[in-house]
DNA sequence: GTCTATAGACAGATAGAC
DNA sequence: GTCTATCTGTCTATAGAC
C-alpha cells in the first residue's frame, strides 16, 4: 500500500526534519529560516511547503519526534537493564549513567532541547505537553530506581520519583554548562557523568 | 559633576534596560524588536540609538547588569546570614531557601535567564563569561555552606562546592518547570522550595 | 496520469540602523 | 521617517519518477 511516491514523501519529510534539528539548534527558532532548512536538506522551499504547513508546524513536529525518541531510548535502556538482570549487583552510579546516556548529550541535542524549553516557557499548551512528556520520562527512570531498591542492594534517601526528577534536572544542567565551555565537548559528557555519580552516591545509603 | 544632562541620560538608559528585560523575556532575543523596547520605555528609536550601538549591545549590557544584581543579591544574603549568626541553630533547609530566593524566581526572571542561557550556548565568549560569573555565585553559596558545616550543626555528604552547584542547578530546573505549568506561578516558588528542601535533607547527615 | 519536487518570482510585512 | 535588507507564504509553469 505504501507507494514509492509516499515513500519518497516520507523520506523528504525525514530529511527536512533532520536538517531542521540542526538549523533550529544553531540559529534558534526565530533565527532559523525556512530557506536555511531547505538548503541543508537539499530541497527548495517549494518542496518544503508541499510537506509542511509552516515553519511552526515543522518545529512542533520536530519537537514531537524528539520527545518520542528520547522516551523510547530511555525505556529501551530500562527494559534492557531489567532483562539482563544487572540490577542487583551493578554499581548504581553506572546504571544511572547508562540511563542518562539515552537522552542526547551532544552539543546539538543540548541546543535543540534549549529551544524546545524556551518554546515550552512561552506557549502554555506546548508547555503542558512538554511537562507531560517529561513526567513519563521521569516515571520510567523512577521505575528502574524502584527495581534496584527492591533488590535490597541499596536504599535511597529520597522517593524514587523525586530522585528521578532531580537526576534528570541535574543531568540537564550539567550538560548545558558543559556545552557552554569553549574547550570543546570532549569533556562535556565526563564532567556531567562525574557530578551525577557523586550525587547518586550521596543519595544512596 | 553629574550634570542634569548625564543624569537624564543615565535615566534613559536605565528605563531602556528595564523595558528590554521585559521585552526580551517575553519575545526572546530574536523576536524582540528595538521598536517594542522603545515603546515600552516611552522613547523613540532615535533615543535608543543615541544610547546604545545596537540591539545586541543592549542585550549584552542587560545580561551584565542582571548577572551583577544576582551576584550581589546572593552575597548580601550570605553576609547577612553570617552577621546575624543564624548559622548554628537554623534549619539548613530554610537557609538554603533564603539564599536561593535572592536569585529571581518570577516568571520574567526565568524567561530572561533562559534567553541569556541560550546566548551563552551559542556565543563561546559570552558562554565563558556566563560560566565565570556563575562560578562566583557558586563560590558564595559554597561559602555559606562551609560556614554552616564548620559550626558542626550538620555534616554534608558532598563537598560544599559541588553541593552548591547542584543546589543551584536544581533550583533553576524546578523554577523553569514551575513557570511552564499553566496553572500560574503562585505555586512556582513553593514547588521549587519543597523539592530543594527534600534534596537538602537527603544531602545532610 | 498522478504525484513530487524545482526554479523563480511575487507580495506583504517587518526589521535594524541611521 | 527613510532606506535597505530579509523572510514568510504563495503561486505558476515545468520537469521527472513510477
Automatic annotation (TrEMBL), chains A, B:
Keyword annotations for this protein, in alphabetical order, are: DNA-binding, Transcription, Transcription regulation
**Annotation: DNA-binding region:** 33-52
**Family annotation (InterPro entries):** Homeodomain-like_sf (IPR009057), HTH-type_TetR-like_transc_reg (IPR050109), HTH_TetR (IPR001647), Tet_transcr_reg_TetR-rel_C_sf (IPR036271)
Ranges in a coiled coil: none
Annotated SUPFAM superfamilies: Homeodomain-like (SSF46689), Tetracyclin repressor-like, C-terminal domain (SSF48498)
Which residues are in the HTH tetR-type domain?
10-70
The domain of life is: Bacteria
- Name recorded for this polypeptide: Helix-turn-helix domain-containing protein
Amino acid at each position: 500500500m505504501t507507494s514509492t511516491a509516499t515513500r519518497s514523501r516520507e523520506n523528504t519529510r525525514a530529511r527536512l526534519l533532520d536538517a531542521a534539528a540542526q538549523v533550529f539548534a544553531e540559529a534558534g527558532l526565530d533565527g532559523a529560516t525556512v530557506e536555511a532548512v531547505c538548503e541543508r536538506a537539499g530541497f527548495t522551499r517549494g518542496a518544503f511547503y508541499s510537506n509542511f504547513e509552516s515553519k511552526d508546524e515543522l518545529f512542533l513536529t520536530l519537537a514531537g519526534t524528539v520527545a518520542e525518541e528520547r522516551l523510547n531510548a530511555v525505556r529501551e535502556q530500562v527494559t534492557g537493564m531489567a532483562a539482563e538482570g544487572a540490577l542487583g549487583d551493578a554499581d548504581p552510579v553506572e546504571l544511572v549513567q547508562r540511563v542518562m546516556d539515552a537522552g542526547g548529550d551532544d552539543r546539538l541535542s543540548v541546543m535543540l532541547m534549549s529551544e524546545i524549553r524556551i518554546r515550552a516557557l512561552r506557549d502554555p499548551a506546548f508547555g503542558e505537553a512538554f511537562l507531560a512528556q517529561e513526567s513519563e520520562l521521569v516515571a520510567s527512570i523512577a521505575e528502574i530506581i524502584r527495581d534496584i531498591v527492591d533488590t535490597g542492594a541499596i536504599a535511597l534517601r529520597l522517593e524514587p520519583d523525586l530522585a528521578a526528577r532531580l537526576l534528570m534536572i541535574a543531568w540537564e544542567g550539567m550538560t548545558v554548562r558543559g556545552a557552554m565551555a569553549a574547550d570543546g565537548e570532549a569533556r562535556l559528557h565526563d564532567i556531567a557523568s562525574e557530578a551525577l555519580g557523586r550525587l547518586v552516591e550521596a543519595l544512596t545509603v
